[in-house]
Amino acid sequence: MKTKKVTFLNDPIYGFISIQSPLIFRVISHPWFQRLRRISQMGLSSLVYPGAHHTRFEHALGGMHLMQEAIRVLKKKEVSISDKEAESMQLAILLHDIGHGPFSHTTEATLAGIISHEEISLHIMNKLNEELKGALDVAIAIFTNQYHKKFMHQLIVGQIDLDRMDYLKRDSFYSGATEGNINSKRIIEMMAVVDDQLAFEEKCIYSIEKFLMARRLMYWQVYLHKTSISAEFLLVKILQRVRHCFENGISPSLSPALGFFMSQKIGKSDFSGEALENFLSLDDSDIIQGLKTWQYHDDFILSKMSKMLIERNLLKIKIQTYPFDPSEVDLKIELLKNYSFKESDYQNFVFTGSISNQTYVPLDKEILILLKNGKLTRLQEANPFFSSNELSQIQVKYYLCYPRNTNLS
Amino acid sequence: MKTKKVTFLNDPIYGFISIQSPLIFRVISHPWFQRLRRISQMGLSSLVYPGAHHTRFEHALGGMHLMQEAIRVLKKKEVSISDKEAESMQLAILLHDIGHGPFSHTTEATLAGIISHEEISLHIMNKLNEELKGALDVAIAIFTNQYHKKFMHQLIVGQIDLDRMDYLKRDSFYSGATEGNINSKRIIEMMAVVDDQLAFEEKCIYSIEKFLMARRLMYWQVYLHKTSISAEFLLVKILQRVRHCFENGISPSLSPALGFFMSQKIGKSDFSGEALENFLSLDDSDIIQGLKTWQYHDDFILSKMSKMLIERNLLKIKIQTYPFDPSEVDLKIELLKNYSFKESDYQNFVFTGSISNQTYVPLDKEILILLKNGKLTRLQEANPFFSSNELSQIQVKYYLCYPRNTNLS
Amino acid sequence: MKTKKVTFLNDPIYGFISIQSPLIFRVISHPWFQRLRRISQMGLSSLVYPGAHHTRFEHALGGMHLMQEAIRVLKKKEVSISDKEAESMQLAILLHDIGHGPFSHTTEATLAGIISHEEISLHIMNKLNEELKGALDVAIAIFTNQYHKKFMHQLIVGQIDLDRMDYLKRDSFYSGATEGNINSKRIIEMMAVVDDQLAFEEKCIYSIEKFLMARRLMYWQVYLHKTSISAEFLLVKILQRVRHCFENGISPSLSPALGFFMSQKIGKSDFSGEALENFLSLDDSDIIQGLKTWQYHDDFILSKMSKMLIERNLLKIKIQTYPFDPSEVDLKIELLKNYSFKESDYQNFVFTGSISNQTYVPLDKEILILLKNGKLTRLQEANPFFSSNELSQIQVKYYLCYPRNTNLS
Amino acid sequence: MKTKKVTFLNDPIYGFISIQSPLIFRVISHPWFQRLRRISQMGLSSLVYPGAHHTRFEHALGGMHLMQEAIRVLKKKEVSISDKEAESMQLAILLHDIGHGPFSHTTEATLAGIISHEEISLHIMNKLNEELKGALDVAIAIFTNQYHKKFMHQLIVGQIDLDRMDYLKRDSFYSGATEGNINSKRIIEMMAVVDDQLAFEEKCIYSIEKFLMARRLMYWQVYLHKTSISAEFLLVKILQRVRHCFENGISPSLSPALGFFMSQKIGKSDFSGEALENFLSLDDSDIIQGLKTWQYHDDFILSKMSKMLIERNLLKIKIQTYPFDPSEVDLKIELLKNYSFKESDYQNFVFTGSISNQTYVPLDKEILILLKNGKLTRLQEANPFFSSNELSQIQVKYYLCYPRNTNLS
Questions:
Q1: Are the Cβ atoms of A384 and C391 closer than 8 angstroms?
Q2: ipTM for the complex shown
Q3: Which domains does chain B have, with CATH numbers?
Q4: Angle D83-95/D56-76 helices, nearest 10 degrees?
Q5: Nearest beta carbon to residue B390 from set D182, D183, D388
Q6: What is the pLDDT of residues C312-355, one digit of tens each?
Q7: Confidence (pTM)
């Protein structure tokens, strides 16, 4: 008997995820992709949502699975997609997040500075493409929006894309915040392509409304959960302090790869070569091992903050819709009077800033609706709900972090 | 307005888990308990079931939640349980697994040798009890089965206990192996206590059957999945090799705590004190950081094996119901002829052994059924299904691990 | 051994529903309550959502289950609720919908005319109360909002009440429109009582937003699904035609109870006595048997419409946000030119009208938010999202029904 | 823009079910198929599992959906299936249960006597085939196992077939007996075809074990639930009494179609023609309307039993593994001493009999396993578990039904 070999991965959300070509199999097996198994998808959110330990690896596979669904639906609707294009669409979404560092977004700005994870993804894709002798050319063109069939890029990067669909479903599933679950099946079934642009059939406008509202809810309730961002600010402060220690010649013990990034600032132009190589060996465990070691470092501030994070003894945090009065900040600084900190050190334990989110962006990356009469329109015209100011404006909130009491531990 | 403070934790399986006393809150907040956030529940299973990144922390909380349910049901059936006992039952299940090391069972035998994780749990509970001035006395008595109300221990350690209920549900949920999901609500609702022994009402015998079969299935399909055990054997071999390197004076770089256990053998009597302290600072990240470093160690075998595990380039594995013929093993050793290994080094890459499981153990820790007429009987008498030899005998399978080809990488 | 008897009902949504007192058991066992097993919860929606065959019986039990949860949460927060009050709150929600007729809302206006299902519920509760010698006094006071603890009524009839929570979850579950699922656990956990009024803790405002949006979505996408309302209009027209036949002396064959309501108009004052007795023997099967018989009635219009509904050969329906132009209606009437209808008969097959829904009603039955500082505020002040006009205004849409083609079959 | 029209049906279990050809669309729209919307899938089980109101309509569609999945999997494994065959496989499973009468199995033996629902299905398929001018020829050949590719029939009628997969999933979903849920995705992915026979890849033997055990559990716990069978026996007794009344010239009022079957015995040879026509207009509502009317019939036994069923005031039932002693039956008959019944009338309220089930049938319709080495073997050889006597023998239990007390109401 002859049985064509199909490879499956188990997934608690979709049941099975199939790997549909040897090239895709090879990319998934590559050590750079396997590294994603060690990068938490939701940063430090597991400190608030204990089930949320899932990684960028599952998310990338989930995106690929939804891409297979979208391709199936669009082909059934007689959108022309060649086998090569289908494979490249899957590769593009599979690799779109490969540039994430430890704890995903949490360390992004601190670690590699001005270089975004998307740029790093592109560096890695290019390097992998060399190794694969150009097999990723089309995937890279799609990822960078240089491919002529625009909808292929829009499926990966848009206001309603497969990346977002998977992370909303997945983050909702693992966190238990069931409100974020969205009906990806329905939205994908309603996809259409008009003049190479992605559009959605009119009868799914309530599912789209639900999608945008679910994302809004996940931002305010989960991603920007106050305890979670308090933990993430703490980690950022710790990495800045490590850098500060390096500058002051009291280098903390850490892994070589993490040391590479902590002991110097990397410019955009330097990122290929040695920097990229070091980046590709980083994962969550470099940070955790660092934190565990730094608990006992001589620098009081570094050791204190590291111990706080390891033991989940976080700063308190207050959130409001208007900026904090400086006098309130000063009152909190008072809590630290037991310590002979320098002025500049206070800001490790008492600091303020803002967070923001926007439910629907009317002008950028339009969501197009395909009306029953065959015409296209923009979402906010099909559903007056989205002309609401509250939804289309950026919403800003302000936070103030401070110690629980006058004794930091 | 006066609102009594109740603390909740999110859980994707039960929705919310409530913390019902300040003492329980204090124990959960303790750094030793927080460490469980960094110990994978299912060892290296996430290499096969990518969603299975959950930790001992969630499992311990889940067990506590089911204990709250069981207490509620039993009190409704007028079983006498004081507030102090209810708190202690929760503490006992919360702490029953606190003695797990990195990747749970995977490193258990290699790391602390002859000391089981249950013994370490007891060491930690005793130490914590000192800190808490005896507040855990009853919990410890329950855990060690010295408390006169035997059913309290049986709820934690038995053939159908809350520990198993939570891990079957949880491991099934995160792995996506839905066959392992069991109806904990129904079984708990059917619990009864007769003469201080735990029993189950007759009308749930099919749910019990389902429970035992689900556990059987999870063992053979998930816990003993061949790829997963291949990975775990590899990790064991690696740790043994690290120990070997220490003995030969070429100590690999590793965290101090891991070094403590790799550089010496700890006897049962030595485990309190320094050993326990080191144990309490170990978690998965010590192993992952070790593996990443050891990839570049001078010892060829250590570096090769570490690289294989980090890159998920595992040994092949074959499983059968009878022992492997030595000639078949020799044929696999042939694959290594390119390498000038010593005789004793072959066994790092080609080795054989056995795994086993038993669905129902007729004599040990009886499952008691409460008949409608008020009498007790044993499960195998209430349901003839369990007199089946296949279920009550230990089932053994044999495995053979070997490299993919003559080139180890 | 002594085991207190607890009765359970299976429920696919909550697992088990427990019956907590002999009085409640007696009410549920009563033939008038058992009748709800034969009344579809969602009218004719199963013609569009084939899984939606659930009945008022399960919904009433589900509401009671959520009431038990709410009572548990509020008592934990030290809200005073006596055992008698707790029982009455459960009875009130259990019975609040007992006045529904065949296919719930679908036949409400046609069958008993100006008497709403809530009024009929009250008639039945009063009659049952006589039989139970006043045991329902408190339940009826709560239902009619005459009880001094207002929150007890608000839990049953409000903008966020347990009735709505259960029907959103349940209708979403059975229809497969997963977007309507809401997190009842979280909202109930956040309930509070201030000055005998129901309020919600501030940190659940996004769950409330989600709840109101889920309800909005269920209205537009499911309850007002165009095919579903087309079927319901058809049934209404059929019942009107049956009445017309009675008036013209060509009485169609039907069950005595249905005949009672079709052969005369019942006034408000007449509803107790004979009318109520007949009402209590009506259920979906009276309508279905009627339709099946009427397919062969001499009145062409009645037989045609009945056959259409039984065979699910429905009128086409068009929906838009502005009224239909009379000329468009006339064009559709043209389709009927083959038939020698009287002028007044056209309106059985071509008719227009409007449907509406309102997401949030700012003034009526306020949703109160309990701020962290202990003060109360109104939802639209805590969450600016709800000041959106789109949400707080009644939204109206217009429909036009017409035959598929010039041949009615 | 050109969009190929695809029709979807909502389904709470699979999300969407697609209709893949105009012929299938036409069959589903046919009044004979639409009738299945009014036939309960699980008989009277909703009296025990209140959520279980689903119908044969959804089940038939669900089976078609799984057939689409199986076709997709097998084609990927290069099993040759033409478009015509694929359509016919879907039609065959869609129509396999179309011969069910009111409440499915419950009325089967009483209504049409010796003619099984499979035979009636075939009658209806043949009649429909005439109307469709032979379009169902292949579907009928598959259904009757006359098609040369045996696996197509085995997918519909076997020990592990798509019919069973759907009903286990569906009945488990709606009843809330979660233990019956099976992993249809996994089993279907593991299907193979060898020499035109259906086989399953070796690595799913634990899923198959789970499947057979889930079915066993659903039988004993759900389908043969004692209260549920007590209700079903009551309905059977009622229909027999109706027949008895007809024979004695005191015909109860009922629908013409039901009257057709109650007033005469239909032989196998008479079933086409008038009998079939009457059968096709029967559904659950004929029975319910009958019961409601018969409550007031002059025959005391008929009215008593009808009232009992409508009000869910069922006979008590006792179940045991050995036959009941006649003296125990006599004791129960004593309960009826208040009534001046004839000897032969007692058996309406006190009766005994047996129920049975078999988990795995070793010889009939073998389950074939495809070993990794490419050879075929039988399930009981691949998994020693199934050589267990308990599983392969028919298990029998005995029941005794009797009134609650000496007063029948």
A1: no
A2: 0.94
A3: 7-224+361-393 (1.10.3210.10), 225-313 (1.20.1250.30), 315-358+394-409 (no CATH)
A4: 150
A5: D388
A6: 999 999 999 899 999 999 999 988 888 888 878 999 999 999 99
A7: 0.89
